[in-house]
């Protein structure tokens, strides 16, 4: 695998691949001559999907921002070595993947509370955030590309950012993570991936086999994409509205009626999490429904799933301030998992306001 210093030095494009789809030769020539505006036009159609790829690799919107910025800077510096033997898309994915692999090597994997220990039977009222853990984060659906963009890939674009999928990827070494994403999500061949990752086709196929075994054990079926296709829009709105209304009214019975028996609720960066209807009910009644104060909510979507931005009343500010983004995972028409990502920094990528009246 190429080291960080190799990425700037050796990012010539591999032979093969598709044509320079979506690019214009004049812009490519201008960009090679140092025209940064021409380079921006070349990469603009690919920015969203490259950003989503970086998120899948890294599990954090903020890390994806940094990785994409770094990758595009490397691509700009190395553009004179792009000879057009592969598509610009393939070449940029090579640069972005190598950039992400550098980050994975330096930082390790991101976690959810379930990765740290067993669930708690009763509410931990004064739970303290863990600041020394790299936590998984949510991803706004506005960053996702068209599911039809790579029809040969196994996973649809929204399936490939579902929380269970992203969490499972974090248990893979960087090379396995990259190989699986490039093959199953983006539709590159094993031979193309071998060139992109500076390894052999045999190594890529081996990495794919190992990655698939891990995902098969960790990613539940059916996917949320397929689950949501079985629920009409009115039903989905009713489920999400029921959840937000129960929270705002402090209505424990209404909330419990929406949950499966094996429901879980976690709140990174808080380490404790809850599994099963009794434990989740105890937490819900003792903490968000009675102890936190007044809530306001805005519905949104995250990771290809329904989500809610929560705002908690702050007396000093005289407003409801942004508090957490909860991603809902459904089984049928009930909520199986609630993952509440605490922190105001999560709101910016979603375009959500910082406060509500």
Automatic annotation (TrEMBL):
Keywords: Sigma factor, Transcription, Transcription regulation. Residues 164-213 form the RNA polymerase sigma factor 70 region 4 type domain. One of its GO terms (biological process) is DNA-templated transcription initiation. Residues 1-32 are annotated as: Disordered. InterPro entries: NTF2-like_dom_sf, RNA_pol_sigma-70-like, RNA_pol_sigma-70_dom, RNA_pol_sigma-G_actinobac, RNA_pol_sigma70_r2, RNA_pol_sigma70_r4_t2, RNA_pol_sigma_r2, RNA_pol_sigma_r3/r4-like. PANTHER family: ECF RNA POLYMERASE SIGMA FACTOR SIGG, RNA POLYMERASE ECF-TYPE SIGMA FACTO. Belongs to the sigma-70 factor family. ECF subfamily. This is Sigma-70 family RNA polymerase sigma factor. The lineage of its organism: Bacteria, Bacillati, Actinomycetota, Actinomycetes, Streptosporangiales.
């Amino acid at each position: 695998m190429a080291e960080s210093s190799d990425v700037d030095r050796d990012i010539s494009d591999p032979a093969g691949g598709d044509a320079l789809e979506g690019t214009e030769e004049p812009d490519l020539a201008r960009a090679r001559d140092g025209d940064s505006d021409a380079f921006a036009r070349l990469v603009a159609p690919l920015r969203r999907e490259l950003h989503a790829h970086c998120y899948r690799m890294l599990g954090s919107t903020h890390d994806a921002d940094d990785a994409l910025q770094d990758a595009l800077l490397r691509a700009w510096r190395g553009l004179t070595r792009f000879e057009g033997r592969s598509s610009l898309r393939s070449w940029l994915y090579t640069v972005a993947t190598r950039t992400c692999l550098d980050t994975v090597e330096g930082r390790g994997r991101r976690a959810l509370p379930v990765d740290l220990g067993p669930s708690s039977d009763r509410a931990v009222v004064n739970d303290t955030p863990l600041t020394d853990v790299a936590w998984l984060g949510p991803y706004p659906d506005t960053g996702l590309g068209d599911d039809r963009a790579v029809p040969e890939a196994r996973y649809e674009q929204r399936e490939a950012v579902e929380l269970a999928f992203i969490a499972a990827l974090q248990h893979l070494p960087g090379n396995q993570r990259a190989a699986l994403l490039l093959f199953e999500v983006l539709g590159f061949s094993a031979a193309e991936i071998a060139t992109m990752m500076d390894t052999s086709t045999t190594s890529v196929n081996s990495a794919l086999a190992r990655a698939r075994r891990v995902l098969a054990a960790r990613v539940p079926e059916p996917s949320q994409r397929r689950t949501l296709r079985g629920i009409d829009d009115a039903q989905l709105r009713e489920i999400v509205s029921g959840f937000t209304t129960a929270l705002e009214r402090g209505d424990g019975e209404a909330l419990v009626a929406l949950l499966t028996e094996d429901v879980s609720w976690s709140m990174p960066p808080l380490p404790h999490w809850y599994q099963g209807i009794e434990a989740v009910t105890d937490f819900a009644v003792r903490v968000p429904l009675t102890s936190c104060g007044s809530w306001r909510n805005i519905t949104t979507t995250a990771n290809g799933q329904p989500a809610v931005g929560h705002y908690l009343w702050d007396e000093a500010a005289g407003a409801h301030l942004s508090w957490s983004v909860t991603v809902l995972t459904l089984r049928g028409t009930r909520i199986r998992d609630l993952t509440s990502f605490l922190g105001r920094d999560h709101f910016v990528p979603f375009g959500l306001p910082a406060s509500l009246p």
